[in-house]
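Figure 6 in text form: structure in, sequence out.
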């Protein structure tokens, strides 16, 4: 009997029944070292005791009430995120795509409220990925995501990442914002230069528009700092979050300045499930771990070690030719097929995830240790040998 599921995923033929830390156990008994982390989600690993206990405790009390009422844990999470970022305010939703949609609406209402309703266009980068809604696939601009879903949502102008001159040319009287990932994930692990981000900040200030960062994949400690843009020192007006904020529980968030938040008044935007007590309890538990002394230093140290070990494996460049990225968000530039390398690694007990530009992403839990890095690199060495034979 065929599956009742819509066949919109090219699923790998393995099913997992449990996990602990950086490992997943399949129904057939195989154990895998998880360097995919649910596509950058399970940053504290699987079955994390603190996160699991927070979820259980909250489930015994209250799951959902809606945003018609005060939710104390939502207020607490907002205060903690604001205290550890550039932002003054936070809005909670259920996913990354919803967070980007909210950010786009914030940009439009901000200019409309301030007497410039003609400002609605957003400059984005080639190779970007911002979600799967009609607006966010238009923002990403990738043909493979847009095909069959026309007409394309109007209002997005694309430039090459790190091309500041192109950005200056793209900004006009109808531009509302610039939206960029400080480190592209789906696009192939391409980092925005510090000089580029600084130039975008100056351009946005000069033009009176907003700078939006999408840190859905690269934020929440993934690069060794809580926010990827901290490496540049250049702050945005709006930032979107999701993925690792819930460590597997669906959540999205938008952080913004007071000037932006002031224009999103009651009735202009909302969500039924966003910010519910269960999601907030989990996210607060995640933040407990990520803000603990030494956590981010560990990520930075393990990221540097993993990169060093990976670069030593480049060898004759017949399988992959480059390592790029930051912290524990690393990409291998494949010289053969990235799908072939992903499959070979899986045969060796290591999970990874492909990306555009024929890259392979390594997104391990941020809690990995040196022994697990050794294990992963040994698996990679065996996989490369198998491909080259």
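Output sequence:
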């Amino acid at each position: 009997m065929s599956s009742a599921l819509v066949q919109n995923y090219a699923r790998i033929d393995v099913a997992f029944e449990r996990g602990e830390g950086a490992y997943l156990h399949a129904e057939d008994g195989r154990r895998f070292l998880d360097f995919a982390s649910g596509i950058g989600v399970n940053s504290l690993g699987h079955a994390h005791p603190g996160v699991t206990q927070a979820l259980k405790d909250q489930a015994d009390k209250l799951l959902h009430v809606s945003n018609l009422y005060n939710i104390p844990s939502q207020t607490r999470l907002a205060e903690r995120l604001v205290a550890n970022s550039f932002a003054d305010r936070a809005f909670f939703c259920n996913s990354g795509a919803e967070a980007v949609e909210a950010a786009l609406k914030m940009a439009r209402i901000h200019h409309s409220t301030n007497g410039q309703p003609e400002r609605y266009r957003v400059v984005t980068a080639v190779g970007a990925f911002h979600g799967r809604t009609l607006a966010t696939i238009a923002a990403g601009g990738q043909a493979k995501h847009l095909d069959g879903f026309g007409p394309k949502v109007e209002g997005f102008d694309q430039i090459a990442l790190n091309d500041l001159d192109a950005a200056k040319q793209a900004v006009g009287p109808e531009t509302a914002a610039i939206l960029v990932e400080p480190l592209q994930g789906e696009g192939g692990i391409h980092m925005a230069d510090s000089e580029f981000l600084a130039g975008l900040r100056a351009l946005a200030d000069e033009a009176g528009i907003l700078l939006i960062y999408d840190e859905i994949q690269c934020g929440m400690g993934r690069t060794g700092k809580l926010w990827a843009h901290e490496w540049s020192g250049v702050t945005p007006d709006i930032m979107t979050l999701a993925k690792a904020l819930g460590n597997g529980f669906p959540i999205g968030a938008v952080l913004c300045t007071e000037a932006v938040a002031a224009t999103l008044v009651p009735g202009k935007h909302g969500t039924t499930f966003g910010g519910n007590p269960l999601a907030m309890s989990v996210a607060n538990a995640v933040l407990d771990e990520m803000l603990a002394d030494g956590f981010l230093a560990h990520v930075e140290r393990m990221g540097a070690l993993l990169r060093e070990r990976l670069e030593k494996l480049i060898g004759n460049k017949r399988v992959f030719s480059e390592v790029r990225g930051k912290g524990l968000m690393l990409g291998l530039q494949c010289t053969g097929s990235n799908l072939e390398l992903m499959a070979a690694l899986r045969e060796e007990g290591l999970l990874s995830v492909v990306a555009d530009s024929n890259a392979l992403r390594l997104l391990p839990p941020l809690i990995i240790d040196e022994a697990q890095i050794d294990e992963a690199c040994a698996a990679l060495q065996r996989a490369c040998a198998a491909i080259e034979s």
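Caption detail: DSSP finds 13 helices and 17 strands in the chain.
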